[in-house]
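[job 4471] stage=fold_predict status=RUNNING
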Amino acid sequence: MKAILLSLLLAISLQISCRKQESEWIRINQLGYRSNDIKVAVFTGLKERELKSFRLIDVSSGNTVFENNDPLRTGPLMPFKSCYRLSFTDLKTEGTYRIEAGNAVSPDFRISDDVYDGTADFLLNYMRQQRCGFNPFLKDSCHTHDGYVIYGGDDDSMHIDVTGGWHDAADYLQYVATSANATYQMLFSFSENPSSFSDACLANGLPGSDGIPDVLNEARWGLDWLVKMNPSPGVMYNQIADDRDHIGFRFPNSDTANYGKGRERPVYRCTGEVQGLFKYQNRATGIASTAGKFASAFARGSAVYKPIEPVFADLLAKKAAKAFNYGLLHPGACQTAPGTAPYFYEEDNWVDDMELAAIELYKLTGDRKYFVHAVDFGRQETVTPWMGADTARHYQWYPFMNMGHPLIASATAGTDISSEFLGNMKLGLKKIMEKGENNPFLAGVPFIWCSNNLVTATLTQAGLYRKISGDNSFEEFEAACRDWLFGCNPWGTGMVVGLPDDGDFPENSHSSYVVKGLQVPGGLVDGPVYPSIFLNLKYLYLSEDDEYAQFQNDLAVYHDDYADYSTNECTMDGTACLVYYLSSLQKRKQ
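[job 4471] inference complete, writing structure tokens
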């Protein structure tokens, strides 16, 4: 027995030693690849190496089934001196494989057309966990006393019932900007890919079947809250709570944050003017960014719900038109309000929101005036400004892609206007691609706070551009962005908690649930940031040794650590925005 134990300990010791001595790695999409996908892995090595070939091994037989003698060398990504892109697109046979190159061996992965099936539904687990009001994950309710009005003029301190919606991230603040965008994205996902969604949960989020796809139950949760936040044509609220919320980890049904009125939280009314109750203030210039988001979510909701709930659909249609008109009267951006820290959503653009609202209203009503507005607003911001930029402020250009452009392009197919707006989409993609063309992972987004949201936006724009235009020139770039989120990145980790369940993914994300021994399944984490951002954000630290220390690089850092809110906090809107792209992969059989 002692001999067996010693042998086991020696084997474990040797495995640990070998891991520490590794200096070459192969990064792959851990979910796998569909048979007709662009398939490219990435080889990284700490030492100089001339890599002349690589091969794919069929795991079941041990046989070499594919060999490439011309891997593509890219520029280095320090500390990785040797970087190669390993293309195996020509291998289309379904099976389980691994890649061998140099001294590196990849994790096993599948080639199969079902590798994305169920992934869009899986993201909804996180959305349900983020619910405010009745929370199905906790099987309890929270924030049932929300809230009291501030910046309301004569209505200051008045109680208003705005319970519902979703908590924004690990904290319990709630914003119309992110919630309306999330609601719209889920409605759009269902409109485009209805067969990708199942019915496993009731409207309250608990297990069960109610004849309604779960994505619509989740979108309805958002719509009901948005109706409360826009109770009448001239009254819009933008935010619930502020960073007085940031008092440590606790479950939402045990929230002890104090805003001065018992268990009520403040509800910020849209004024179109600068707001901030304490040391810091935002730079708001108007209300149209929020009004446009209300209008687009209501209009798309009306179209989706018309055959299901015509009375509700009619209410949404009326509210959409009135919200859009209110935006016309109050141009400008309505930013979220900071509290005791300098961080807030610094949204500076608004014509994109009004463009999307206008084209949705045109599709809903057929009224030509909305089409004219849509094209006019769309021509004022042809490319979302972060695309091709080195940096941007937090949520400065939001939403991170302009959904109005593809809708105008598809509504005018075959016309000069369609070509114009497809050209705008193409230019944005080209700018991002050019930023990453010398990078082994083709990563061209700026690595600002919530970089994974930018990757997700890029995927949505690339997928819609390809679908509408028929132009496949960005396919490899699109594949690289997709694979980045599921492990083909310097750290070899997926960015969605729980995908795939046998893979490397965030296990120690910034969340009260995680700190208290639970998990946040389906959540998309913020993603890597520039080293300079990590070093300069307030209250940021690591709670344990960095397991990815040897993979941190000149481009970006990422930490699977609950104390790193900059890279490892899941966001509700980022997760919701990924639903469309994953649902399209499930539907699309190439």
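[job 4471] summary: Residues 22 and 28 are 17 Å apart (CA to CA).
[job 4471] exit 0
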